[in-house]
Amino acid sequence: MILMIITAIISVFAIILIPKRLTWLEMYTTSLFACLFATMVDVYLDVKLNLYGFFQPGTDWAYIPILLIIYPAFNIIFLNFFPYEKPRKHKIAYIFGFSVACGTFEYIATFTGTFYHNDWKLWHSLLIYPVIFLILVLHLYFYRWLKNRNK
User: Fold this and answer.
1) CA distance 118 to 135
2) Using the 8-state DSSP alphabet, how is residue 19 labeled?
3) How far apart are CA 45 and CA 148, in angstroms?
4) What is the pLDDT of residues 20-42, one digit of tens each?
5) Which residues contact 111 (CB under 8 A, 6 or more apart)?
6) Of 32, 45, 44, the residue nearest 71 (C-alpha)
7) 3-class DSSP state for residue 22?
8) Total domains in the fold of the chain
9) For strand 52-54 and strand 115-117, is the pairing parallel, antiparallel, or unpaired?
10) Residue 31 · residue 75 · CB < 8 Å
């Protein structure tokens, strides 16, 4: 629980202090999407299949701050610093670096009792994180396309 509290506090301060490259509406819509996406994935992989989970098996009230603070904060930080105008190799390196950082965070979270693995392994996460981050970027592109289309 301490890891979650510290992470939430640092995340909130990071969101407040970082220079914003995203609009408030982009931060809001992409964070809502990230929360919805995380909830859908966690319902099936955690609750239904019991591959991994937060704190203890089943639904847990302690998951709510992770869902409403940490996921949106990581989403905003990731998308805010994404190298949109750089070559593809920079984008791939950025996604890879963020995936390794999240894998490291997950590894630490398993030792603090914040997160546990059953049949899920850390390497599964390391394979999935790049896909998740790519989906977040594609969602932002889609949002911007919709916004420009309606002008």
Assistant:
1) 25
2) P
3) 36
4) 899 999 999 999 999 999 999 98
5) none
6) 32
7) coil
8) 1
9) antiparallel
10) yes
Amino acid type, 51: L
Q: In whole angstroms, what is the distance from residue 88 CA to residue 104 CA? A: 24
As a three-state string, the secondary structure of 79-107 is HHCCCCCCCHHHHHHHHHHHHHHHHHHHH
SS3 category, 51:
coil
Cα gap 131→128, rounded to integer Å: 5
pLDDT digits (tens, 9 = 90+) for 66-91: 888 889 999 999 999 999 999 999 99
Q: Domain range holding 10?
A: 2-15+23-149
CA distance 109 to 115: 5
- Fill in the amino acid letter for 140: L
Strand partners, 52: 117
